[in-house]
Amino acid sequence: MEQIRKYFEKNLKMSDQDWKAFSSKIERCEYPKKHLLLKTGQIEKHLSFVEKGIIRFYLPKEENDLTFTFVFDDGFVSAYDSFLTQQASAYQVETLEKTILWRISYDDLQTIYQETEIGNTIGRHASEDLFLKKSKRELSLLNDTAEQRYLKLFSEQPQLIKQIPLKYIASYIGITPQALSRIRKRIS
């Protein structure tokens, strides 16, 4: 839980009272590898902070799933569009390894917003983190080659990227597993 406080206190100062109110609403959850946190058609009920783990967002397809996001340690994770609107998700969210999350429910977050001075700032920081990652991903898809996207992912998370199956990485950077193999061979 202290990991979350340290994350927030990089940008803002939380009083012990605000931290106590916020921390009383979050719960620690452990999930095994390959656990579906959210299925297509379900409504996202939590905003979570990843203490440890790797999470994949994807569109399930008959032949090959389309992976569009990974979330690693010290990041926020949520099917945020579903969370904000409380409407069904069009995609799935799963753990790729044993994962530890600190979760706050939609209703509890609304309470924190109303009852604490710092609540809206906490919510803003979490949503800004999610937005910046999404924006970075979209710009990368528009501006970078598949090789550049692979190299960026590898340079940002070198120790974790080795734990993600190549078929998911290939889908994430928008190529086939065979094309990823050629890229990996060329750069090694």
From TrEMBL:
Keyword Lipid metabolism tagged: no
InterPro entries, from UniProt?
A: cNMP-bd_dom (IPR000595), cNMP-bd_dom_sf (IPR018490), RmlC-like_jellyroll (IPR014710)
Keywords for this protein: DNA-binding
GO MF assignments: DNA binding
Domain Cyclic nucleotide-binding residue range list = 30-115
Origin superkingdom = Bacteria
According to UniProt, the name of this protein is DNA-binding protein
Q: Which organism is it from?
A: Pedobacter psychrotolerans
